[in-house]
Write a structure and sequence with these properties.
It is built from 5 helices and 5 strands, in the order αβαββααββα. By secondary structure, it is α+β, with helices and mostly antiparallel strands. The chain has one domain: CBS-domain. A hairpin with a 2-residue loop joins strand 4 and strand 5. The longest helix has 24 residues. Keywords: CBS domain.
């Protein structure tokens, strides 16, 4: 299974923010849309990722509020990325290795979407459920031999 399979099911809605936007505005978008991340784009290029991990760290560092903080100062400026053709097992390894919950999907310089660890886990479970149903159906429909050979008694 590949990332493109997740994007096909998930759809193409993307939420982005500019790096010089106020963190408070970014938080409002995240809360309003019930999303855990925003892709940070500048002049059409991916420049970072803002997740609630960076937001919480910024709020704690700033004494419990966002103040005049801008996105650029708190974003992850080297986010993990993958392509639509990346295998899901590789994405899992990458996300686990960096404790990343969100990963932008890039096709060259074009942002195709964002997948979350939840999306990956759901795809894996759905794939396993499908395989399990197919195996059970195969076993249930196992052909019965008409003239079975007798067992050899050695």
């Amino acid at each position: 299974m590949k990332v493109v399979d997740i994007l096909r099911v998930k759809g193409g809605t993307l939420f982005t923010v500019a790096p010089d936007e106020a963190l408070g505005l970014a938080l409002s978008v995240m809360a309003e849309r019930d999303i855990g991340s925003l892709v940070v784009m500048e002049h059409g290029d991916l420049v970072g990722m803002l997740t609630f991990r960076e937001v919480i760290q910024a709020i704690v560092k700033n004494g419990g509020n966002v103040g005049t903080t801008i996105v650029r100062t708190v974003m992850d400026d080297h986010p993990l990325t993958c392509t639509p053709e990346t295998e899901i097992d590789e994405v899992r390894r990458m996300m686990l290795g960096r404790h990343a919950r969100y990963m932008p999907v890039m096709n060259g310089r074009t942002l195709m979407g964002v997948i979350s660890f939840y999306d990956v886990a759901k795809a894996v479970v759905d794939g396993q459920d499908f395989e399990n149903r197919m195996l059970k159906a195969y076993i249930r429909d196992w052909p019965v031999e008409e003239n079975p050979e007798p067992e050899s008694k050695l």
